[in-house]
């Protein structure tokens, strides 16, 4: 059915609904009024917060474009010893078919463009801008002439002829200014985020090519308000110092830019939210278990110690409990953490691809998972409902009640077999008045789409899918069509697998006109101080009367939220 919402959660929701505490750093104090009272000079000062890329702030547009811009303009200042970085981009690091573009500057001060998922990857080598001065850059794509041309300070600098298709309807995520969506964790350099080491004063984008006269006019204009024959897509005057949480799009398009963070812990804003109960989700814990076991155990203990205060009704884990599918040590460590919850808080887990013996290279054999998360133990645990196959917890369901609301948590294997999906459907039919939450390890990608079967991160691309018979593996679309979007009592869906610094939220309308909220929660790839992974959990507080949820990525060791945009409210 029609997709209602697909986005990274907007920071607007955080700032407008919550207000932010502990999320910013005071840069200076500005005098705003001076007067005299009883012959005494009185100065009134107000603290001014400055948001800087170097302090892990970025601007994010409120909505994605309907197509990728052809022309990009920006006023930038690159210090002499700058390493360069991203100016504007919607690149995630995930291999997508079309639509990811980036404008950046390399470490030598040369403007660089990546167009259509790096199908064009070109450095304009004729001139460098790393001189500590403000420069106006304009990269103009002329679709008719098949050219990409760079202008610096209104003068031609360099160009390349390259046939590239238009990217109508292929913009995916809202554009970021100052950094892209990539994480720090990388298998190779193309996955590593590159924040711009410098300042960005203004950004303007167009659909199609613009003239040299227009470029020169834009250089002199902070608030561009005309539509340039319908071609202008947006203009944002950010200022030499970023001090505004929201920067208005001066055009009629109304696509404002709002402050967000990357790789940053901020204060917990929603402390006054009234709620009835809490549900906690654990993103892929594999790296945390392997490299920060003590922090992992402290996180699990925190969940128990705060369960009464939060009225925690259920805890779930989206898979990849171990980083190696046949490791006694790692599975034992992972199980030790969950054992702290035994007979205190009901919980469930699903298998990730790393939780199979050979990590999805050949088949679904689950020797170590079955050993350390045994059916013989979990069948007597709080809330246990049943399993698909007696003897293994690979597919299970749990029942619990929260503030008078009956829930059913269905836990599914990676790329569940069609027969397993049908089993899950019968559970939905058996409990028609329960709110059903479905969790499986792999479902949506970091761009908010259902994970494509052709994506290299999709389980269907792993070795075990070779030669598989129809129904032995299913895609995200098949899971949606046959379960998540099919039954009117399916309320939410959760998945991990795809590392993402931020929570990805999407909403779909099922065939019964019910709204299904799906979330990607996988913070495994966050890196701080050259250490791998953090104790980040997903906390969802629910207010039944208001039909409202307060969500955040919380770290007990930091007592803070990971990234400003990862605390938000959702109506249901």
Structure characterization notes:
The chain is an alpha+beta fold. The chain has ten helices and 34 strands. Helix 4 (293-305) packs parallel to helix 6. The protein starts with a strand and ends with a strand.
Give a quick precis of the structure.
By secondary structure, this protein is of the alpha+beta class.
Strand order of the largest sheet: 1-27-28-26-25-24-23-22
Query: How many DSSP E strands?
Result: 34
The largest β sheet comes out as: 8 strands, mixed
What is the arithmetic mean of pLDDT?
88
Low-confidence stretches: 1-45
Number of helical stretches of at least 4 residues: 10
The amount of helix comes to 10-25%
N/C terminus separation: 18 Å
Which structural class best describes the helix and strand composition? alpha+beta
Task: Name the beta content range.
Answer: 25-35%
| Shape by Cα distribution | elongated
Radius of gyration computed on alpha carbons? 25 Å
Name its key features.
8-stranded antiparallel sheet; alpha+beta; disordered N terminus
């Amino acid at each position: 059915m029609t997709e209602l919402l697909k986005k990274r959660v907007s920071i607007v929701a955080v700032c407008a609904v919550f207000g932010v505490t502990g999320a910013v750093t005071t840069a200076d104090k500005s005098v705003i009024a001076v007067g005299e009272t009883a012959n005494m000079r009185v100065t009134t000062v107000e603290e001014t917060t400055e948001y800087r890329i170097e302090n892990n702030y970025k601007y994010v547009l409120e909505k994605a474009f309907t197509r990728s811009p052809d022309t990009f303009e920006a006023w930038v200042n690159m210090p002499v010893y700058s390493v360069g970085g991203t100016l504007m981009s919607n690149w995630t690091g995930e291999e997508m078919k079309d639509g990811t573009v980036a404008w950046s500057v390399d470490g030598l001060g040369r403007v660089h463009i990546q167009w259509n998922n790096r199908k064009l990857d070109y450095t304009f080598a004729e001139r460098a801008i790393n001189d500590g001065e403000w420069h106006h850059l304009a990269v103009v794509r002329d679709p008719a002439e098949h050219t990409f041309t760079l202008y610096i300070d209104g003068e031609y600098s360099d160009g390349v002829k390259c046939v590239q298709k238009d990217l109508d309807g292929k913009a995916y995520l809202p554009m970021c200014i100052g950094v892209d969506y990539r994480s720090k964790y990388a298998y190779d350099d193309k996955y590593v985020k590159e924040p711009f080491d410098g300042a960005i004063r203004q950004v303007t984008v167009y659909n199609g090519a613009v003239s040299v006269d227009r470029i020169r006019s834009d250089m002199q204009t902070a608030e561009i308000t005309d539509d340039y024959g319908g071609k202008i897509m947006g203009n944002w005057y950010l200022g030499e110092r970023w001090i505004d949480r929201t920067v208005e799009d001066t055009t009629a398009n109304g696509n404002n830019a709002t402050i967000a963070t990357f790789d940053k812990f901020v204060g917990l804003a929603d402390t006054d939210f009234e709620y009835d109960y809490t549900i906690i989700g654990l993103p892929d814990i594999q790296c945390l278990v392997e490299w920060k076991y003590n922090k992992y155990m402290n996180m699990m203990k925190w969940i128990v110690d705060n369960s009464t205060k939060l009225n925690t009704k259920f805890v779930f884990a989206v898979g990849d409990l171990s980083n190696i599918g046949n490791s006694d040590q790692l599975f034992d460590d992972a199980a030790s953490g969950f054992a702290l919850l035994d007979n205190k808080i009901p919980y469930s887990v699903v298998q990730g691809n790393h939780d199979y013996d050979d990590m999805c290279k050949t088949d679904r054999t689950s020797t170590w998972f079955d050993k350390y998360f045994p059916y013989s133990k979990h069948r007597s645990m709080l809330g246990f409902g049943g399993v698909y196959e007696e003897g293994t917890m690979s597919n299970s369901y749990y029942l619990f009640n929260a503030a008078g609301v009956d829930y059913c948590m269905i836990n599914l294997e990676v790329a569940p077999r069609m027969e397993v999906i049908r089993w899950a459907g019968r559970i939905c039919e058996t409990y028609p008045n329960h709110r059903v939450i479905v969790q499986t390890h792999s479902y949506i990608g970091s761009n908010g789409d259902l994970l494509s079967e052709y994506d290299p991160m999709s389980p269907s691309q792993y070795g075990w899918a070779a030669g598989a018979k129809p129904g032995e593996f299913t895609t995200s679309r098949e899971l949606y069509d046959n379960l998540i979007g099919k039954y009117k009592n399916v309320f939410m869906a959760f998945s991990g697998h795809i590392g993402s610094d931020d929570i990805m939220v999407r909403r779909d309308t099922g065939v019964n006109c019910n709204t299904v909220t799906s979330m990607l929660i996988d913070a495994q790839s966050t890196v701080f101080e050259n250490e791998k992974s953090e104790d980040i959990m997903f906390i969802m507080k629910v207010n039944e009367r208001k039909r409202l949820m307060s969500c955040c990525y919380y770290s007990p060791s930091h007592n803070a939220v990971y990234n400003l945009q990862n605390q938000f409210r959702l109506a249901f």
